[in-house]
Amino acid sequence: MINKYKGSYVSYVLMFTFYFFALGIFSSIMSIYLSGIGKSASEISFIVSSVGIFSVLTQPFVGYLIDKTQKPKLVSAITLLLAGVTGVVFIFFHNNVLLFILNGFTLAFINSVSPINEKLATNSRFRYGIIRMWGAIGFAIASQIAGLVYDHISPSFNFVLFFVAIIISIIGYYGTTQIEVDINNSSQSLSFKEVNSALLKNKRYFLFLLLTFIFTGMTGVNNTFLPLLITEKGGSVSIVGTIIFFATLVEIPIILLSHLFLDRVSGRVLLIISFVVILLQFSAYSLISSLNIIIVSTVLFKALATMLFIMITLKIVINIVESSYINSALAIAATGKALGGLVFQLVGGKIVVMYDIETLYFFFTFISLLGIIISFMMKIEGNSKNLFNGQNSD
């Protein structure tokens, strides 16, 4: 029975569903949870910004450990377990500094294994889309449950569910197919500093890191302040969960159809599309006060943009980075995401305190336009092999 479980579709379903369920249950209404225990907008920004600081240390190191040990599943499972412990401890403290530390460690650990999850999906014998869709389903369900638990049971109980989901996700890791090891992996003989130095000398990769910094910085802040914008316009916490639930479901058709366009469309065009999507989203938030319009914009654009960027990151990094550095490159890209979150959280918090949330999104609209301009400058020769088609025709 154990042999049948290894490499099975069920193992991937468990891993992706409960990994993203854990992420969703912890993060989807974090700003509302913190507001509910008496934290101001500036305090919320301070606590949430911790992810960037801690990720600068954890994500490149986790990527380096995976390249060095060639044991991605073991390293990822240990990292996830650490996230589960720090996440459940979160409910016992209200001190800003302790919440800052615990939030930072928890999400930094979770985000550190995200690139490996994506590689496990593309490395399996199943098509990427029919595996990855379970992540969208898990996050969607978590967003809905988080709001209902918050309103009808206890806000703290969400963190208990988070820990349970982490454990189930680790069980899923056990059955997935190991990522193939490159026996000529030159990064195994290099130090942590030498690997990072080699990557940052890659001009195309460096430019992509800048785009990652901008894109994920803004979308990270959006995750923090969008629930507050919706409740400010008259929506309840449960409605926030329902909106995010339907917004996440929009990812599923994109994921399922990924093999039809991601291997064929250039990375530059995909980057431009991603920035156009968030440009439309943020301009709607900044210029239109109707709650219904905000809901429609969120459902259509929020998860679509972030999901596209996750898949684009995998495609672009594999195209522009040597194969021996891919895990480290994906980890550094995740660090760029975290740094973007840190900087934009701090700036965004100040804008909201000085002005309002609509002004924050007006600022993001112009930054999105800048991202489109930079995307036109990207030169990515060729397309990766059938990355999203699966190794077999399952």
Automatic annotation (TrEMBL):
<keyword id="KW-0472">Membrane</keyword>
<protein>
    <submittedName>
        <fullName>MFS transporter</fullName>
    </submittedName>
</protein>
<feature type="transmembrane region" description="Helical">
    <location>
        <begin position="74"/>
        <end position="93"/>
    </location>
</feature>
<keyword id="KW-0812">Transmembrane</keyword>
<feature type="transmembrane region" description="Helical">
    <location>
        <begin position="99"/>
        <end position="117"/>
    </location>
</feature>
<feature type="transmembrane region" description="Helical">
    <location>
        <begin position="269"/>
        <end position="288"/>
    </location>
</feature>
<feature type="transmembrane region" description="Helical">
    <location>
        <begin position="236"/>
        <end position="257"/>
    </location>
</feature>
<feature type="domain" description="Major facilitator superfamily (MFS) profile">
    <location>
        <begin position="8"/>
        <end position="383"/>
    </location>
</feature>
<dbReference type="Pfam" id="PF12832">
    <property type="entry name" value="MFS_1_like"/>
</dbReference>
<dbReference type="GO" id="GO:0022857">
    <property type="term" value="F:transmembrane transporter activity"/>
</dbReference>
<feature type="transmembrane region" description="Helical">
    <location>
        <begin position="325"/>
        <end position="347"/>
    </location>
</feature>
<feature type="transmembrane region" description="Helical">
    <location>
        <begin position="12"/>
        <end position="34"/>
    </location>
</feature>
<dbReference type="InterPro" id="IPR020846">
    <property type="entry name" value="MFS_dom"/>
</dbReference>
<feature type="transmembrane region" description="Helical">
    <location>
        <begin position="294"/>
        <end position="318"/>
    </location>
</feature>
<feature type="transmembrane region" description="Helical">
    <location>
        <begin position="205"/>
        <end position="230"/>
    </location>
</feature>
<keyword id="KW-1003">Cell membrane</keyword>
<keyword id="KW-1133">Transmembrane helix</keyword>
<feature type="transmembrane region" description="Helical">
    <location>
        <begin position="156"/>
        <end position="175"/>
    </location>
</feature>
<dbReference type="GO" id="GO:0005886">
    <property type="term" value="C:plasma membrane"/>
</dbReference>
<dbReference type="InterPro" id="IPR024989">
    <property type="entry name" value="MFS_assoc_dom"/>
</dbReference>
<keyword id="KW-0997">Cell inner membrane</keyword>
<keyword id="KW-0813">Transport</keyword>
<feature type="transmembrane region" description="Helical">
    <location>
        <begin position="129"/>
        <end position="150"/>
    </location>
</feature>
<dbReference type="InterPro" id="IPR036259">
    <property type="entry name" value="MFS_trans_sf"/>
</dbReference>
<feature type="transmembrane region" description="Helical">
    <location>
        <begin position="46"/>
        <end position="67"/>
    </location>
</feature>
<feature type="transmembrane region" description="Helical">
    <location>
        <begin position="359"/>
        <end position="378"/>
    </location>
</feature>
